[in-house]
Design a protein that fits this description.
Aspartate Aminotransferase, domain 2; seven-stranded mixed sheet; alpha/beta; four-stranded antiparallel sheet; binds pyridoxal-5'-phosphate
Length: 507
Amino acid sequence: MDMTKLLSSIGGKLPKPVARTMEKGLRKLPGVGQILDKEYESLLAGLEEDLKPYKGKFPDFPSLPPDGLGDEEIFSLMRSIGKQEEERWKEGYASGAVYHGSDEHVKFINEVYALNSQSNPLHADLWPSTIKYEAEIVSMTANMLGAQEAKRLDPDAEVCGTVTSGGTESILMAMKTYRDWARAEKGITKPEVVLPVTAHPAFDKAVQYFGIKAVRTPVGDDFRADVDAMEKAITRNTIALVGSAPGYPHGIIDPIPAMAELAYKRGIGFHTDACLGGFVLPWAEKLGYPVPLFDFRLPGVSSMSVDTHKYGYAAKGTSVVLYRTPKLRRYQYFTATDWPGGLYASPSMAGSRPGGLIAVCWAVMVKMGEKGYLEATRLILETADEIKAGIREIPELRILGEPLWIIAFTSDALDIYRVLDAMNKRGWSLNGLQYPPAVHIALTLRHAQPGVAERFLEDLKASVQYVKEHPEESGGMAPVYGMAASVPFRGMVDDLLRRYLDLLYKV
Ligand SMILES: Cc1ncc(COP(=O)(O)O)c(C=O)c1O
């Protein structure tokens, strides 16, 4: 029996705090460190080849080349590398990752970027164009998510926000804003945020960065947040509650109306993480799909994160964080008044920001228009209906909850991680989940292309059949996922992840 299996079998029976203490003790035993090192090495060994496929096949540059390369040489190198990668995302083999990706769309993005590549909103005097684009991105997003209704309900509500670099930065900014708001207006110095276990790890990042305590609460059998549990978790120090529309793992929308009402009654913030759903749900609702209220039409929703670089179809590197009032947004801003370099003010984490990406985001939004987003959503949701029906016909698989277009499934009969591996061998890049072990596919416009849903279902059936017929085969990522999902010693998993990140930087 290997070390991870052994630890998993001992620790699996222990309550979490006992496992944590035991892990600390085990690590101090002579020799355990070396054994664990070997375990990690073997778990990561297979991965290095996958992560570094160009090693020895394309020129490496661990240091600057003495003479710069010619433009044509660089283009040709990048074209041939790009060719190796393009098929999987273009032909719809990836979960999420590329959300539009048609040749025409990519060409449009590239041309808009070329027109704006030098701009930077930090220099508002030089590029007022970027300032216009950013303000309009925020306003278009706010109006899509109930800003008018919010104003009708309460004249003080004036939904506003900023553009950020992505969902994570939008979430970081919202959490920092609540921390500073609660300190200034309520005197809270030990802030806590209550959020379901399914909310994105960007919230863990935010609480780590900003000295907030996260209180994670369970979800029900339907994978929706347990509102009673959240209510019980609220203390004097709670600054905000969080819900997802939908959450990344199972694509399930939390009961936002009840959660936001709870926050409203308690006088604390409520953040809807609509990084995935912000540009889909308004249109899904218009198309008649069952979508609960999740945006500023609910009086309790005080902030939202909405990713333009996902289903907004902009290039990677933009998202929008929205607030119900400009007063709240002020807590996000950073200013420096006494610097010899002059007066300095910046709205979000970064100083200089890519005006080119902001311009691309604006251009994509005005090109898509309401009609474009409605049609894109219709295509994705129809593909999702076809895929869900197909998965339900595979007796070994079971869909988790009732998702719209991010579909998680597991198996009571097979190791689902081996099905994930088998799909991977057929070219698919799906996402492995844990607690419970499952796999998901986030459907995008890439999957709405003719034939992709059929190919996915055929490959899924064949993968299930393969795993059934080869029950004892090992290798692939299944043991890594299996170990990560079953080992109660989370420090080991943390180590493994840090080693994985190290591996990415190996040249
Ligand atoms: C629900 C949700 N929130 C936040 C994020 C973080 O977004 P990003 O990867 O753009 O930082 C994601 C990413 O998938 C997400 O699915």
